[in-house]
Write a structure and sequence with these properties.
The protein has 441 residues and is mainly alpha-helical. Helices cover 81% and strands 0% of the residues. It starts with a helix and ends with a helix. The chain crosses the membrane at residues 21-47, 67-88, 95-113, 125-146, 158-179, 199-221, 242-265, 277-297, 309-325, 331-356, 363-390, 396-413.
Length: 441
């Protein structure tokens, strides 16, 4: 299967892989990822403000439970929507599905401008709908980038997409701070009735609408995408896509548990202030952003054996989690956060890059599977960590290292299902033969 890809003629592979995206097209696609990530980061802190007027004299514990449930239903929307949208994108055209996702994203935000008219059930429905429509953006953007990007520069573009997603998460809370200042301006205060929450929702919806218009004007025609899909009949076996989905789910399980563990540790240790916990989250995002920058500027994924890159990332993640489980000072706490963030920040873009080597006609399914696995991993990781932390507290981080250690052991065993680096496979027939024979059982 791998060898046949390398030996195809340029005429056979040209329509699928040689057509490149323009700067404007790539910019709008990256901006769409940034906007949905920023929307999540900006809207999550607003959930208690939506619920308080509707829940009356509910105690803080009940309010906290609803905030957690609303976060979970958003993730559930992604989990359900990602494989469905990915499949539809492969059949109906990725550009169409991406635009439908952005339309739905904007439509699910606008009713939140008047949350008092929705009720608690209505807010739940809208958060689930937002996650469902975001699931049409998350897998389809990388599928489009993979479809129209030459293999020699695909890794750098995936690192760029990962960086834009992380920047969006960092930008989201800043949007809240900016809204609080802007709402003091006379004309804006009248429009939003003095509410910074209303302004944040309006800005998030406006940015989504802007992305929709920009992409509608610049994306490749659906007909050309359909021709490209029809021209490509090979690709990694489905078992290899499944392997990537499982790996992605495991890493997201650990990442979600690691992030929740930081929050819970801050609540359990009075000497660890909320400011320090926020600094750790900022450190985590910045380290992952730095790793994406390294991948972008060095082109490491285009030259390296992905198995070794993943193994290196998992070793870093395991080391960081063990430091967090056994740290004796604040300095080692920060070091553990950095190591864990660097490890997961190295693994996740590598998995996305390998999934991009899938057959062009199955890219939507491959990327949708990655997004669904990520949503499932996040949900299970948060639930498991909440239970574990109540039982063993700080040692939870050591338990979280076990899934990574088990995955690392599997990576060290050559298997037929393992996907090879698409650039190295297509570099030369001799290299392809070696890669193919080395992965046979």
């Amino acid at each position: 299967m791998v060898e046949s890809r390398a030996m195809r003629s340029p005429r056979e592979s040209g329509p699928t892989r040689q057509q490149d995206l323009g700067v404007a097209q790539l910019g709008w696609l990256a901006a769409a990822v940034f906007v949905v990530s920023a929307g999540y980061g900006a809207l999550m802190p607003l959930i208690p403000d939506w619920l308080r007027p509707l829940m009356g004299d509910a105690d803080p514990a009940a309010l906290a439970r609803h905030v957690g449930y609303l976060s979970g239903i958003y993730t559930a929307g992604i989990l359900l929507g990602a494989p469905l949208w990915g499949m539809l994108a492969d059949r109906l055209g990725r550009a169409r599905v991406l635009l439908v996702g952005l339309i739905g994203y904007v439509a699910s935000l606008l009713p939140l401008l008047r949350p008092e008219s929705l009720g608690v059930v209505g807010i739940y429905a809208l958060r689930g709908a937002t996650g469902f429509f975001v699931a049409a953006v998350v897998p389809v953007v990388p599928a489009l980038v993979a479809q129209y990007t030459p293999e020699s520069i695909r890794a750098r573009r995936f690192a760029w997409l990962g960086a834009m997603s992380l920047l969006g998460f960092l930008f989201g809370p800043g949007l809240n701070a900016a809204a609080e200042r802007l709402v003091g301006l006379g004309f804006l205060s009248v429009l939003v009735q003095g509410s910074s929450t209303t302004l944040v929702i309006a800005l998030s919806a406006a940015l989504g609408a802007l992305m929709m218009l920009g992409l509608a004007a610049t994306l490749p025609a659906p007909s050309s995408l359909g021709e490209a899909d029809a021209a490509d009949h090979d690709g990694a076996p489905r078992s290899r896509s499944l392997a990537l989905w499982i790996l992605n789910g495991v890493v997201m399980f650990v990442l979600a548990g690691f992030e929740l563990g930081i929050v819970l540790q801050g609540q359990r240790h009075p000497d660890l202030s909320s400011r320090e916990v926020s600094l750790m989250f900022a450190e985590c995002s910045l380290v992952m952003l730095g790793v994406n920058a390294v991948l972008f500027f060095t082109g490491l994924l285009e030259r390296a054996d992905p198995r070794r890159v993943l193994a290196c990332g998992m070793v870093l993640g395991i080391a960081g989690l063990l430091m967090l489980a056994r740290h004796g000072s604040e300095m080692w706490l920060y070091v553990g956060v950095s190591f864990t963030a660097a490890g997961t920040g190295l693994v996740l873009p590598t998995l996305a890059y390998l999934a991009a080597g899938t057959s062009a006609r199955r890219l939507g399914i491959a990327m949708g599977g990655l997004a669904a696995a990520a949503g499932l991993g996040q949900t299970l990781g948060s639930a498991a960590t909440g239970w574990l932390f109540g039982a063993v507290m700080q040692s939870t981080f050591a338990w979280l290292s076990i899934p990574l250690a088990a995955t690392l052991a599997l990576l060290l065993i050559p298997r037929r299902w393992w996907p090879a680096n698409p650039v190295l496979v297509s570099a030369s027939p001799s290299r392809t033969f070696l890669t193919s024979t080395e992965t046979e059982p």
